[in-house]
Amino acid sequence: MAVEGAIATDSVRHTAAVHQGTYAGGLGSWLTTVDHKRIGVMYGLSAFFFFLVGGLEALLIRLQLGSPESTLIDADLYNQLFTMHGTTMVFLAIMPLGAAFFNFIVPLQIGARDVAFPRLNAFSFWVFFFGAVFLNSSFIFGGAPDAGWFGYANLTSAQYSPGIRIDYWVIGLVMLGVSSIAAALNFIVTILNLRCPGMSMMRLPLFSWMTLVTAFLLVIAFPAITVGLVLLMFDRMFGTVFFNPAAGGDVLLWQHLFWIFGHPEVYILLLPALGVVSEIIPVFSRKPLFGYPFVVYSGVLIAFLGFGVWAHHMFSVGLGPIANTVFSAATMLIAIPTGVKIFNWIATMWGGSLRFRTPMLFAVGFIAMFIVGGLSGIMHASAASDLQQTDTYFVVAHIHYVLFGGVMFALFGGIYYWIPKITGRLMHEGLGKMHFWVMAVAFNLTFFPQHLLGLHGMPRRTFTYEAGLGFEAMNMISTVGSLLLGGSILIFLWNLVRSLRRGAEAGSNPWQGATLEWSTECPPPHYNFLTLPRVHSRYPLWEDGGVTSTAPTDEHRLPEPHMPSPSYYPVVLALGILVLGVGGLSRALPVVFLGVAVVLFGIYGWAFEPLERQTHPRRGVGRRSRQEKA
Amino acid sequence: MSQSDAASAEMYTSTGLPSRKLLMWTFIGSECMLFGSLLITYLVYRGKSVVGPYPEELLNIPFISVTTFVLLMSSLMMVLALAAVQRGDMKWGKVWLLATALFGSIFLAGQVFEFSHFVHEGLTLRRNLFGGSFFLLTGTHGAHVTVGVVWLLSLFFMALRGRLTRANAETVEIAGLYWHFVDVVWIVLFTVIYLLV
After folding, report:
1. HEC per residue, A435-477
2. Would you give the DSSP letter of residue A196?
3. Which of A58, A260, B153, B159 is least surrounded, with the fewest CB atoms within 10 Å of its CB?
4. pLDDT band at A471 (very low <50, low <70, confident <90, very high)
5. What gap in Å lies between CA A203 and CA B172, rounded to an integer?
6. pLDDT confidence of A629, banded at 50, 70, 90?
7. Nearest to A194 among B14, B34, B128 (CB)
8. Per-residue pLDDT averaged across A408-426, rounded?
């Protein structure tokens, strides 16, 4: 221990020139990068692009519903739009936005130089990217999927959905599943294994904790939908009878497989947001998180209970009173750990010296909107009440209060909070606050009336409604709100572009954050930490001596750490999977064989790639800590 | 590869477990859910086929018992291969690696024979629910065995060229984890599909 030199918050900023290399380089360097920060940026940009695509689809839907018996969009296009809006927002926007934060922030928060498997990380991104492009290319080639984001059997059968629209959906989701599972495996190992010395699990920042829980949810939940999708693919491509009632097939099996994935998926979307809020609120309250262990274990409990509630999506199929009661009760149980978190956030703010900067506004806005969504969630946790609400706009209102008012508010807060870390520049406070207030008002204007529409009986997933049913006014308000919501996103985009060009320099710790990611420069050099840190408390930067260096004092002038070399194989392997997907879609055997060949080439090239320069990020510290032990 | 293994052998990790091994264990956890979902599909559709052939007319327990025995023996070979590599005995390491792959291949040959026999008897993927769920479940397992055989053969050829040494014992161990998992899955499938007809 004697060899450890104390370092102050910013003593790792050694040369000013170092970090300029973080994003430098041409297209080739981005294609082959294995740097978690660049991959995080690519995840973030693609996710935000698809968020805009999904938002545009939503605006078209709202324009159609703005007036009764509108002929702006016909039923067929409407079905494609709501299917792709749901699929895009869940799989191509919110999940990868979460992944962007996992990538950029988690290694920095746990004091590592990269993730455990940098090439696997690049592979996850490229499979996601190709899968997303593949899915959306359906709009150009023959029409987008149109059976809902849940794709209920047997509407998706070759008989009722001929053509290749559903094939796009099935193959696209399998690709996205491969990407998610690969990424989740990587993050589990990274968080469990690459924590810096002193970073025990009970010192792990909440965002990294929730990333870990989310990753476990992903690896456990995704296989179920993968099997469901494979069954569906076999039905459509090879003529099996899994979902053919005439041959004894059970269409409910699809619903079970889908929702055993689908409900944990809700928490896959939500838990990263809970993690972001748990980071923001303590920093802007200048207080440690109230009841840290309770917040951690509540997250774990939410994930655990999340696997026992899937049939609350199926109350109306007639599973019987016992199943309905059990699933009702289990669903209501989830309100307990969720409530614990909300009370802990409020207790953290209680008596703190609050600073309502933009990230804090979004975090507090999140709490308020999420409570509304949580309350309507409790309402349809009751099977009796749910039967009145199923398939109405009430459920649409609920899901948007949870996923937009909840998750997206928190993620926007996260963007404002961490953008200085990523770009080195702050976003504009005035524009940020304007973004928040316009968005908060527009969001409620859009979605609150949908509660009332639902209770009045307006069905969801129907492309129009008759005049005189009493739906006109609320729908008009909702449509106006949605346009305003689109406007708030434009404010955000303007703020983002403006900050890149002339935002204020962030310094290394603009918010006086407490966690390790703020102990490096903004943006961090490509190896993150010149000497790996050792932490001594849960909020290392808030305490004197909370973080020290693991390097011996006489080695202060260390050379740059060796980092993994760039590699083409991840993107090649991902491309092979894309070719396989295209082969399956076109049913062309030569294309399938080509895909197999590219995949094999990718795997073997990957396995035998010379790794001379690929020293492991943690190798150096390992030797040192062994010496310390000795 | 050898250098990364040498590096990982002395690498510090928070749990003390090598990262690649932890990755394989986590992956196996995920695979459990995959096979679990397939198995549940098979069980849900047991006895639901509306046309034959039915399982009791086709399943040949003595034949599959033999190939099952072969697959289980391959796990023993795998243990011997790892033990040989760990003590630096690459000669026997090569022998046992090849033997493991060979026994896996015999199992696969048995599966190919069984599948073609069933198809000959009229059971195809699209014939009935039994056909679909049986071929998908055992086929997925067979695909996993195939991947394992290719992996083991790759290790064997690396050893032939002298690129697999004692320093790579962890690589062999991880391949072994995968191989044993695939065998364990077969024990479950054999019990559920064949013994509980």
Report:
1. HHHHHHHHHHHHHHHHHHHHHCCCECCCCCCCCCCCCHHHHHH
2. P
3. B153
4. very high
5. 35
6. very low
7. B14
8. 96
Are B10 and A623 in contact by the 8 Å Cβ rule? The answer is yes
d(CA A542, CA A546): 7
Tell me the residue ranges of DSSP E strands in A503-562.
533-535, 547-552
* pLDDT > 90: percent of chain A: 83
Chain B residue whose CA is closest to A621: B12
**Catalytic member of A124, A190, A278, A488:** A278
The CA distances from residue A369 to A93, A376, A448, A474, in Å, are 20, 11, 11, 20
Could you tell me which of A121, A278, A259 has the C-alpha nearest to residue A188?
A121
Q: What angle do CA A415, A417, A421 make, to 5 degrees?
A: 90
Taking 60 as the threshold, does the pLDDT of residue B167 lie above it?
A: yes
Cα–Cα distance for residue pair A213/A423, rounded to 1 Å: 28
Residue pair A470/A502 in contact by the 8 Å Cβ criterion: no
Q: Cα(B17)–Cα(B13) distance, rounded to whole angstroms?
A: 7
Are A421 and A523 spatial neighbours (Cβ–Cβ below 8 Å)? yes
When pLDDT is averaged across residues A38-61 and rounded to a whole number, the result is 97
Q: How far apart are CA A67 and CA A70, in angstroms?
A: 6
pLDDT digit string, tens, across residues A69-78: 999 999 999 9
pLDDT digits (tens, 9 = 90+) for B133-150: 999 999 999 999 999 999
Report how far residue A334's alpha carbon sits from residue A304's, in angstroms, rounded to the nearest whole number: 9
What phi and psi values does residue A477 have, to the nearest 5 degrees? -60, -45
Catalytic residue among A22, A87, A190, A338: A338
What is the residue-wise DSSP string for A136-158? HGGGTTT----STTTT-TTTTST
Tokens of A362: 């979004």
Place of tokens 């059970």: A250
In one-letter notation, the amino acid at residue B35 is: F
3-state secondary structure of A584: helix
**CB distance A406 to A332 below 8 Å:** no
Q: What angle do CA A340, A341, A342 make, to 5 degrees?
A: 95
> One of A46, A180, A392, A499 is an active-site residue; which one?
A180
Backbone angles phi, psi at A533, to 5 degrees: -80, 160
pLDDT value at residue B4: 43
Strand ranges, E, within A107-226: none
Structural tokens at position B27: 């992956």
Answer yes or no: do A248 and B36 touch at CB < 8 A: no
Across residues A115-129, what is the average pLDDT?
96
The owner of tokens 């507090």 is A364
Residue B12: the pLDDT is: 75
Buried b (16+ CB within 10 A) or exposed e, A76-106: ebbbbbbbbbbbbbbbbbbbbbbbbbbbbbb
CB A241 within 8 A of CB A247: yes
Beta bridge partners of A392: A459
Element (H, E) at A38: helix A36-65
Work out the minimum CA distance from A33 to partner chain B, whole angstroms: 19
DSSP for B154-169, please give it. HHHHHHHTT---GGGH
Band of pLDDT at residue A23, cut at 50, 70 and 90: confident
Best CA proximity match to B139, nearest among A175, A252, A240? A240
- Beta-carbon separation of A249 and B36 below 8 A: no
Non-local CB neighbours of A430 within 8 Å, separated by 6+ positions: none
pLDDT in the model for residue A13: 40
Residues 6+ apart with CB under 8 A from A322: none
Contacts of B12 in chain A (CB under 8 A): 618, 621-623, 625-626
Complex confidence, ipTM: 0.93
